[in-house]
Design a protein that fits this description.
With 286 residues, the chain is mainly beta. It has no helices and 22 strands.
């Protein structure tokens, strides 16, 4: 069965220079020695997350491909829909042991009509790995030499030692793609871009909590361009832990942030420990 393709509005082009995932594009790599005749220019996010119950770390990748660069077919059995075959490959190398983990799958995405300029084909993939720190490469290809490679910096698949904030997912309702944590449907947003005044869906996992202890959380939106500037927006809340791990899901209104690129820093403090994680987002000019 074909996955439904979701079309993301072209609310962002400038996000490419936001350094969101520290993506380095290349036409060849050690892992995949091939040349792409037509680069697909992907936008990708990669997260180190766990299942909601813990003990099953994985790397979760969300991607967006510019629709006008993709090849498609309209087979009779598709009922007029455009079918986009995309081969999705993830290669991760454990930085400590050199162990390699690979996912290789062919996806068939279906769109009601062929995608036009400014529309994206979006998807999500995940690969289970042992806890650890990984260098990860995502390769997206179509037949005929169309391909895209994104090498992303180190990603940590969470373990269980001490207080830890997982990677932070900034999603958007209506983006069309979600990840299932085992207990929660997590909206994704590989473009990491929002219209002014929109709402971001925040998701992260906390582990290493001490039940009965109170933990304070601070969310700080900082200008991506200014290193030590004070936050443009700060939100704080506290909660008492009732388990050693928890999923945090919050909707955050962005109406008080002007257009531009931001870092979101999440800091959790309690029981004599502190942990933080950073995400990136862009608010479009209009």
């Amino acid at each position: 069965g074909a996955s439904e393709a979701r079309v993301s509005p072209n609310i962002i082009r400038e996000q490419r220079d936001a350094g969101i995932a520290q993506i380095t594009r290349a036409v060849t790599s050690d892992a995949f020695p091939r040349t792409f005749e037509a680069p697909l220019d992907p936008i990708t996010q990669i997260y180190g997350l766990d299942r909601s119950g813990g003990g099953s770390p994985r790397l979760v990748v969300a991607f967006a491909l510019p629709g006008e660069k993709l090849a498609y077919t309209t087979p009779p059995e598709a009922g007029g829909r455009a079918i986009y075959p995309v081969r999705v490959r993830i290669l991760s190398i454990d930085q400590a042991t050199g162990a390699r983990y690979e996912l290789d799958s062919l996806r068939q995405f279906a769109a009601a009509a062929p995608l036009k300029g400014g529309q994206y084909l979006t998807g999500v993939a995940e690969m289970k790995v042992p806890a650890g720190r990984y260098t990860t490469t995502l390769v997206l290809t179509q037949e005929g030499g169309k391909g895209a490679l994104a090498r992303l910096a180190a990603v940590e698949a969470p373990g269980t030692k001490g207080l830890r904030v997982s990677d932070v997912v900034l999603g958007r309702e209506g983006s069309g793609i979600t990840w299932n944590s085992g207990s929660t449907r997590v909206p994704m947003n590989p473009l990491n871009a929002y219209a002014k005044g929109a709402t971001a869906e925040l998701y992260y996992q906390l582990s290493g909590l001490t039940p009965g202890q109170t933990y304070a959380t601070k969310l700080e939106f900082l200008s991506a361009a200014e290193q030590e500037a004070k936050p443009k927006l700060t939100l704080s809340f506290s909660a008492t832990a009732d388990a050693d791990r928890v999923e945090v899901v919050r909707s955050i209104g962005l109406e008080n942030l002007d257009a531009g690129s931001y870092r979101l820093r999440v800091t959790v403090t309690g029981a004599g420990a502190t942990s933080s994680a950073t995400a990136w987002l862009v608010i479009a000019k209009k």
